[in-house]
Design a protein that fits this description.
Order of helices and strands: HHHH
Structural class: mainly alpha
Distance between the termini: 52 Å
Length: 189
């Protein structure tokens, strides 16, 4: 009977030891994952802050340019190229080039389950809005290339509509950047 008691006691000690070791290993892994996510989100937040500064510059310039174009009288036959040179410090449309692929910059892998879906959703919305902004930049560039010397009011109106769309998208991106930064700054993992 003594050997059975010793065996059961040793068995329980070994099982408890393995169980405690697994708990410690799991705790260590979770801590490592939290540290990784905090570093990753810190890097993303810094990139978003840098992008926000740059897009603010573009937004301000585009807003001023839009206001100036809206003041041009319909009967004014000045070509778009001359108006752009007169209205813009750069002589054209300032293009904001953010750090692309914010959500894909850091491979999170299995650690993504630790992130709140709202953070991932905001990053996805930023990517989508940025792609749309690029499309609008392409459209306005195409319009300017094809109509740069045009004195027609209709071509000016098309430019104003495209520029207004770019301003709206840039404002949306600034709001998304702010939402992301607010959600990251208030989280602790």
């Amino acid at each position: 009977m003594d050997w059975l008691l010793v065996f059961v006691k040793d068995f329980v000690v070994v099982v408890l030891g393995v169980f405690v070791a697994l708990l410690i290993d799991r705790w260590r892994e979770r801590r490592k994952n939290r540290e990784f996510l905090n570093r990753a989100l810190g890097i993303l937040a810094e990139n978003v802050r840098e992008n926000r500064k740059e897009i603010e510059k573009a937004l301000n310039e585009h807003t001023i340019l839009l206001r100036k174009f809206l003041k041009v009288k319909p009967w004014d036959r000045t070509p778009l190229s001359a108006l752009l040179s007169r209205f813009s410090d750069t002589g054209g449309i300032f293009v904001f080039l953010p750090r692309r692929g914010l959500s894909g910059q850091i491979f999170i892998g299995e650690r993504a389950s630790m992130l709140d879906t709202s953070v991932l959703s905001i990053l996805s919305d930023i990517e989508e809005a940025t792609e749309y902004m690029y499309e609008m930049y392409y459209r306005i560039s195409d319009h300017l290339i094809n109509r740069l010397d045009s004195p027609l009011h209709e071509d000016r109106i098309r430019l104003i509509v495209l520029l207004d769309t770019i301003v709206k998208v840039e404002r949306d991106i600034v709001r998304l950047y702010d939402r992301f930064l607010k959600s990251v700054d208030t989280r602790s993992f």
